[in-house]
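quick one, 228 residues, struct below
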Amino acid sequence: MRKFDLAQTPLRELNEELHRQTDGSNQAQWEVLNPRGGHAIAVGIDAPIKVDVLGSVGYYCAGMNKKATVTVHGSAGPGVAENMMSGKVVIKGDASQYAGATGQGGLLVIEGNASSRCGISMKGIDIVVKGNIGHMSAFMAQSGHLVVLGDAGDALGDSIYEAKLFVRGKVKSLGADCIEKEMRPEHHEALTKLLEGAGITDAKAGEFRRYGSARKLYNFNIDNADAY
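---
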């Protein structure tokens, strides 16, 4: 295992080393000590390696992640896993605003709560939040899945496209063009796989409700003007 102590080594050197890793790298496990809320830790990785960050992080941790598994043993600031392409990012604590924003693939697991705009403009990423999420989550979400075991704040799924939202708790309010939808067998199956992938064993697909697009805002129609 390769260890980096950010109390002694500049963050730039850590990220440079992580960027040098490839699919055939022999150094598959990394440990980051003393992150101390640093920004942009473990960003832009493009290799199937495992990185454990032992502490809380600041802005944009694991952004643009591809193939790697990044675990933060603490909480994360705004923009964690932003524009993620593939791989897996796990936050053991809470996540701040716009977690998983514009993510195009991979799995983001937040074991605590997520703040506002979780999954904003998501484009294929799967996000599982064990706690609650804040307002305007999944705003303009295009594709992928957002799974919430707790409650959701105001304006969930505002201006949503084709992303699928599953919430076990209460939803304070739905955003424009977001409606509750039927949970069909294929949704139960997909949700069960997501829960398993996130290591969740104390929740079942039948406990969730599904939300998605009413498809009234794709094109302007004067009859729907009040929804804009």
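The first helix runs from residue 11 to 20.
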